[in-house]
Amino acid sequence: MRSIKQPGAPVTERIQWVEARGRAFSFTLQAGLPLLEAARRGFAAEGFAGGVLNFTSGALGPFGYVMPALSKTGENAAFYSDTYRPAGVTRTRLGSMTLGSRDGAPFFHCHGLWTEADGKASGGHVLPDETVVAEPFEVQAFGIDGAMFTAEPDGETNFKLFGPVVSASTGARTTSRAFALRLRPNQDFAGCLEAFCRARGIARAKIHGGVGSTVGARFSHGGVTEPFATELAITAGTIGPGTSGVLEAVLDVALIDYTGGLAEGRLVRGDNPVLMTMELVLEVLA
């Protein structure tokens, strides 16, 4: 399997996870607010301090983002581009977000694809401190209670990355057993999730959120992303019995690579290793 050497030593535990409770809901992001504050308010209104969300068509402006890029210093296996700040209103096509905390304050990690006001199709990593909701738009959210994604230094990748930690219950109304996960580098995305569910007797699960990166990508429609550094959003995902009865992760994703190439589709099981990280929430259905 493809792999990318990281600057630090791999830790033994390849999946960082916390069991929690959760609930799916939708809300509308309020125009004129920073995207971070609009998201925070939406979760807070339902009693949650954090969680994950997915969105399709939305409107952002002012808007700042970065794309994946090669590392200039060698301190990381890959890095970020300079900041892009497209003029006017950018229209999102799809995206996913993890809402958690960094340095004691709300923070998010968000990847998506969009069309800028001049018609340019692009995507990447949305900057929380430079992005404002231009028009109200609806998002599909999943709040988690008993776990929080918190940004902490990660020695393996030499980045400060979101990972789930145990947090005090906020008393929010929940409906489902859930697991907040962070997958570490150089393990197959689907296989990792399948093994996690098998080990816990989970027969069916639904993925909510999903922000991370893979070492390029191999799609079931035959498409291939060769450039190794990507920014990826999960658009839909389930884990359940396949035709043979064995657990299979079905992962539909969209990404941009460091050359600006865009790709969407279903990932091939067994051939899509994680590059830096993959954050998501598994809702246990059975």
TrEMBL record:
Q: Which InterPro entries match?
A: PPC_dom
Quote the Pfam families the UniProt record gives.
PCC
Give all residue intervals belonging to the PPC domain: 19-165, 173-286
Q: What is this protein called?
A: DUF296 domain-containing protein
